[in-house]
Design brief:
The chain is of the alpha/beta class and 412 residues long. The protein has 15 helices and 10 strands. The chain has helices at 5-42, 49-70, 74-78, 80-109, 125-137, 142-145, 151-156, 196-207, 227-238, 257-264, 282-285, 292-305, 323-335, 362-374, 392-411, and strands spanning 140-141, 164-169, 173-174, 184-185, 211-216, 245-249, 270-272, 310-317, 340-345, 379-382. The strands form 2 sheets. Strands 1-2-5-6-7-8-9-10 form an 8-stranded mixed β-sheet, with helices on both faces. A two-stranded parallel ribbon has the order 3-4. The longest helix is centred in the N-terminal third of the chain and has 38 residues, at 5-42.
Length: 412
């Protein structure tokens, strides 16, 4: 009756378990003796682990002692109930001082701008008056949008007190995204303000400016690129008596010659369009829709439409260009009939924009001014802080005075 399969299975399990238990009992004394020997040998005088443990323990004790010395004293602990706020305040002050010292160290490590790149602070009666009027009329200026370092000098007027303001037409949002520019970008900016030409002309009258620069964002979303909008603004300004001198820093209108002609024939005095950099660096600096040859064609066509029109462009240095490339760019500009060229240092607006490859020295800017003048440009402005519209009014008036003096000498 005990031969059933479950019974035999249970008995077999008990037999195997008991045999394993008996084997373990026989081996246990030997295992205990081996453990005792190993523990006694480890604790003997020849052991190398003991001195290391003692050294580590003493080091931990030393650190703990140092922390206790730096922390609150026993008297402070005793008075913690009444003086807790004072103790906490002292502790917070010490932590703040430590953080400030770390920030100062980090600040020292940052690369400082050369001394020649420090701009004068914006001040003066003209500057304040222009700033207030811009706010009242809700106008956008490239001086502010592009964070120009010369805003105080241009708005305040220079040696001849000729204040120059650069008004940005067609809003403050561009449809292109050049890697050097701080102006906002969007594929679908707000629509054009049809009252903007009238508002701008009213602002110019109120300011009493002798020289005004009109620039604009690129508006590839508008049918004619905004050419008629710019032309209308110029025509309203020229309808006043006396009319200010008007310079237009235009977009490239995607190379459309008809749109370029609309602006060139609007009555402006100076047609400006920037190539920005040398041909080899254009694809790294400008938006993919802007081209070096396309910009040269725009300047050349404006001169062809009105041969008496002054044409102007600007080149940024410090983007990674070589001297050979700059020389070739100047020759290309002269071949396209450009009259005025300006050189300036590229400065990184934010960390999101491309890095500065080189801070060009004042001596190098003087060198490029001499090279450009030898190539036959009518006027050259070259300096680290020079921008396309930098003191444009003074430079233009100076040139007109020189022309008048030459005419008088010829008549005599």
């Amino acid at each position: 009756k005990h031969d059933s399969s479950p019974f035999r299975t249970i008995m077999l399990f008990r037999r195997v378990t008991w045999s394993r238990h008996s084997s373990l009992q026989r081996r246990l004394p030997a295992l205990c003796r081996g453990s005792l020997r190993s523990s006694s040998s480890a604790s003997g005088p020849m052991s190398s682990a003991a001195p290391a443990d003692e050294a580590g323990e003493s080091e931990r004790l030393a650190k703990l002692k140092e922390q206790m010395e730096q922390g609150p004293s026993l008297a402070e602990f005793a008075q913690f109930g009444s003086d807790a706020p004072q103790v906490k305040q002292q502790h917070d002050a010490a932590k703040k001082k430590q953080k400030l010292s770390l920030k100062e160290k980090a600040k020292r490590k940052k690369q400082r701008l050369p001394a020649w790149l420090k701009a004068k602070p914006a001040q003066g009666d003209n500057y304040q008056r222009l700033k207030e009027t811009v706010r009242e009329l809700g106008l956008a200026t490239v001086c502010e949008e592009a964070r120009c370092p010369n805003i105080g000098e241009c708005w305040g007027g220079g040696e001849h007190e000729t204040a120059t303001a650069t008004i940005m037409l067609m809003g403050d949002t561009c449809t292109r995204g050049c890697r050097f520019c701080a102006v906002k970008t969007s594929n679908a900016p707000p629509p054009l303000d049809p009252q903007e030409p009238e508002n701008v002309s009213s602002a110019i009258l109120k300011w009493g400016l002798d020289y005004v620069v009109l620039t604009s964002v690129d508006r590839d979303d508008v049918e004619d690129g905004g050419a008629s909008h710019i032309a209308r603004t110029v025509q309203l300004l020229k309808a006043h008596d006396p009319a200010p001198i008007v310079e237009c820093l235009t977009p490239d209108f995607q190379g459309n010659e008809e749109h370029v002609a609309v602006v060139a024939n609007s009555g402006l005095d100076v047609f400006a369009h920037n190539v920005e950099t040398v041909e080899e660096m254009t694809r790294f600096v400008r938006d993919r829709r802007a081209g070096y040859r396309q910009s040269l064609a725009v300047l050349e066509h404006a001169k062809k439409v009105r041969p008496s029109l002054l044409t102007k462009t600007s080149i940024m240095l410090g983007c990674g260009e070589t001297d050979t490339e700059v020389h070739q760019t100047l020759r290309d500009l002269r071949d396209s009939g450009v009259d005025i060229v300006t050189f300036g240092q590229y400065l990184r607006p934010t960390k999101r924009h491309m890095k500065v490859a080189e801070y060009v020295t004042p001596e190098k800017f003087e060198y490029w001014q001499g090279v450009a003048e030898q190539l036959g440009f009518l006027y050259v402005a070259s300096g680290a802080l020079v921008r396309s519209s930098y003191r444009a009014g003074e430079l233009f008036l100076k040139r007109r005075i020189e022309q008048q003096q030459q005419q008088q000498q010829q008549q005599e």
